[in-house]
Design a protein that fits this description.
- This protein is an alpha/beta fold.
- It has three domains: about 10-150 and about 275-335, FAD/NAD(P)-binding domain (3-Layer(bba) Sandwich), CATH 3.50.50.60; about 165-270, 3-Layer(bba) Sandwich (FAD/NAD(P)-binding domain), CATH 3.50.50; about 350-460, 2-Layer Sandwich (Enolase-like, domain 1), CATH 3.30.390.30.
- The chain is built from 14 helices and 22 strands.
- The protein has helices at about 20-30, 45-50, 50-70, 85-110, 165-170, 185-195, 215-230, 285, 320-335, 365-370, 385-390, 420-430, 435-440, 450-460; strands spanning about 10-15, 35-40, 115, 120-125, 125-130, 135-145, 150, 165, 180, 200-205, 235, 240-245, 250-255, 260-265, 265-270, 275, 310, 350, 360, 375-380, 395-405, 410-415.
- The strands form five sheets. Strands 1, 2, 3, 4, 5, 6 and 17 form a seven-stranded mixed β-sheet that branches. Strands 8-15-9-10-11 form a five-stranded parallel β-sheet. The chain has a five-stranded antiparallel β-sheet with strand order 18-19-22-21-20, with helices on both faces.
- A hairpin with a 5-residue loop joins strand 21 and strand 22 (about 410-415).
- It is globular and about 70 Å long.
Length: about 475
């Protein structure tokens, strides 16, 4: 290790090159700042390497396999459909490599200095970056902390060869015969569903009353029903107690209705949430305030209590979503540049890549009522849409939440095919202050799933065409 190194000066230093950090670095560079980004692992962070992107590649492969086996309703049958899981993993890795290489290219193209190593604050204007061989000091005018989060490890379920977090679950080299998933949240349902499509027998243990508790019951029940058709078993109000591991599998102990029970499986996936990566940065050296859970407190410009240090993504309050981190990264970079940018979370979408897909943006009907807003809810079913019928994907609905007094769109929930793509139009409608009439009067191409948005808006204004009022 080098001692007494000469400090390198930079305008803005970004710690972490995930979807929050690399976006912040690029935007800061575009705004004329000299920017350095520090990353201890891989460009793209958890999202691109072991999260959002590889999980969607695995989910897509599972869908292809399912479709190949079950398209007889369309007159298409296939014999001896097989999965080469090594090739599935190669496909997933190829997608990841393209994107992470692209991130590095974008950073270099915007003249951002990339530094590999672990960052520690010395004070509010100085960082020490260390790798295995050396250490370098950096002085900065402003810093953006974007260090993300890591899976929560339960004391009674220590991660091992057969007790896996999401990273381990994505890296399996074979399709397990039996899997126990602890946690019926987004990650557990997405990965449990992916392996169920490949033929694994999946059991989900959830401590709450139901799965996907952040979504409306009508939405999560559709997912649950479809997963049950694939043989997935759900045990809710269950308390996971511990695990016994051997060379060939695990025995998961849990409590249900006061009774001790156990399940045998090849692997157990522990997916009970994530904790912020704020514990090894020397934040106290810079005087940065955190909550007891290690969440950094910020203002509307993502500024911490230390005026020249900003924090974004999973380490601050709110949902742990890649697109939220990217959005906050842009706000922080613009605030540093003196722009009057502030965070506004009203139109931040949440998505589950389940079957059917779930997506929500803005207020739910219940949330609006709790805040004293008088609303109306208008629903249109996928089963009444020509494109959904042609796709044989008729499960689901779109619900539009509008303010009663003027029809202003303040929320939307979608359960159905391509909900993840359709939700963007509703987010735009909320951001732009559009009414249900604006959506109803927008000409949508036929036949498309996008028409469901228009049809729900027509229900909202009292003049539906394709369902009887």
């Amino acid at each position: 290790m080098v001692v007494g190194d000469f400090p390198i000066e930079t305008d803005t230093i970004v710690i972490g090159a995930g979807p929050g950090g690399y976006v912040a670095a690029i935007r800061a560079a575009q705004l004329g700042q000299k920017v350095t980004i520090v990353e201890k692992a891989n460009m793209g962070g958890v999202c691109l390497n072991v999260g959002c992107i590889p999980s969607k590649a695995l989910i897509a492969a599972g869908h292809r396999y399912e479709n190949a086996k079950h398209s007889d309703v369309m007159g298409i049958t296939a014999e001896n459909v097989k999965v080469d899981f090594t090739k599935v993993q190669e496909f997933k890795s190829g997608v990841v490599n393209k994107l992470t290489g692209g991130v590095e290219g974008l950073l270099k193209g915007n003249k951002v200095d990339i530094v590999r190593g672990e960052a520690y604050f010395v004070d509010a204007n100085t960082l020490r970056v260390m790798d295995d061989n050396s250490a370098q000091t950096y002085t900065f005018k402003n810093a953006i902390i974007a260090t993300g989060s890591r899976p929560i490890e339960l004391p009674t379920f220590k991660f091992s060869k057969r007790v896996l977090d999401s990273t381990g679950a994505l890296a399996l080299q074979e399709i397990p015969e039996k899997i126990v998933v602890i946690g019926g949240g987004v990650i557990g349902i997405e990965l449990g569903g992916a392996y169920a499509n490949f033929g694994s027998q999946v059991t989900v243990l959830e401590g709450a009353d139901d799965i996907l508790v952040g979504f409306e019951k009508q939405m999560s029940s559709l997912v649950k029903r479809n997963l049950k058709k694939k043989g997935v078993e759900f045990i809710t109000k269950a308390l996971a107690k511990g695990v016994e591991e051997n060379e060939t599998g695990v025995t998961v102990k849990f409590e249900e209705k006061g009774e001790e029970k156990s399940l045998d499986a090849d692997y157990v996936f522990v997916m009970v949430g994530r904790r912020p990566n704020t514990d090894e940065l020397g934040l106290e050296q810079a005087g940065i305030k955190m909550t007891e859970r290690g969440v950094i407190e910020i203002d509307k410009q993502c500024r911490t209590n230390v005026s020249n240090i900003y924090a974004i993504g999973d380490i601050v309050a709110g949902p742990q979503l890649a697109h939220k981190a990217s959005y906050e990264g842009k706000i922080a970079a613009e605030a540093i540049a003196g722009h009057n940018a502030e965070i506004d979370y009203l139109a931040i979408p949440a998505v589950v890549f389940s079957e059917p897909e779930l997506a929500s943006v803005g207020y739910t009907e219940q949330q609006a009522k709790e805040e004293g807003i008088e609303v109306a809810a208008a629903k249109f079913p996928f089963a009444a849409n020509g494109r959904a019928l042609a796709l044989d994907s008729t499960d689901g609905f779109l619900k539009l939440v509008t303010r009663k007094e003027d029809g202003l769109v303040i929320g939307a929930q979608i359960a159905g095919a391509s909900a993840s793509d359709m939700i963007a139009e509703l987010g735009l409608a909320i951001e732009a202050g559009m009414t249900a009439e604006d959506l109803a009067m927008t000409i949508h191409a036929h036949p498309t799933l996008g028409e469901i948005t228009m049809e729900a808006a027509e229900v909202a204004i009292g003049s539906p065409i394709h369902i009887v009022k």
